[in-house]
Amino acid sequence: MQQVKRSLVLTFGTAAKSEENITITNPKEVLSGVAIKKAMTDALATNAIGEVVQADKIIEAKFVIQQVAAVDFEEA
Fold first, then answer.
1. 46 part of a folded domain
2. pLDDT tens by residue, 44-76
3. Bridge partners of 7?
4. What is the full DSSP assignment across the chain?
5. Which structural domain, as residue segments, surrounds residue 7?
6. Bridge partner list, 24
7. pLDDT tens digit string along 1-43?
8. What is the chain's mean pLDDT, rounded?
9. Cα(67)–Cα(6) distance, rounded to whole angstroms?
10. What is the largest CA-CA distance in the chain?
11. Stated pTM of the model
12. Residue 24's pLDDT is what?
């Protein structure tokens, strides 16, 4: 049986030219670009993104869709 998995990856940039990613598994089916950008802007304002270097800009957001199929061990 095949299953489709969907996640949302938010990518932020740092002054050191590195990237910080946040992955959200099973995001709402209907999310607008405006809503995603607002959430990313709000997250940046908290100064909570970045383990070593603080994130200071939004790079991109993308939906990642994976089709997953289980292996049938009985199949020849």
1. yes
2. 999 999 888 999 999 999 999 999 998 989 987
3. 25, 64
4. -EEEEEEEEEEEEETTS-EEEEEEES--S---HHHHHHHHHHHHHTT---SSS-EEEEEEEEEEEEEEE---TT--
5. 2-69
6. 8
7. 789 999 999 999 999 999 999 999 999 989 999 999 999 999 9
8. 93
9. 9
10. 55
11. 0.84
12. 97
Is 76 inside any structural domain?
A: no
Rounded Cα distance between 10 and 39, Å, is 10
Q: In the prediction, which pLDDT does 1 show? A: 72
One-letter amino acid at 12 equals: F
Amino acid at 43: A
Is there a contact between 59 and 11 (Cβ–Cβ < 8 Å)?
A: yes
Scan for tokens 């020849």, then name that residue: 76
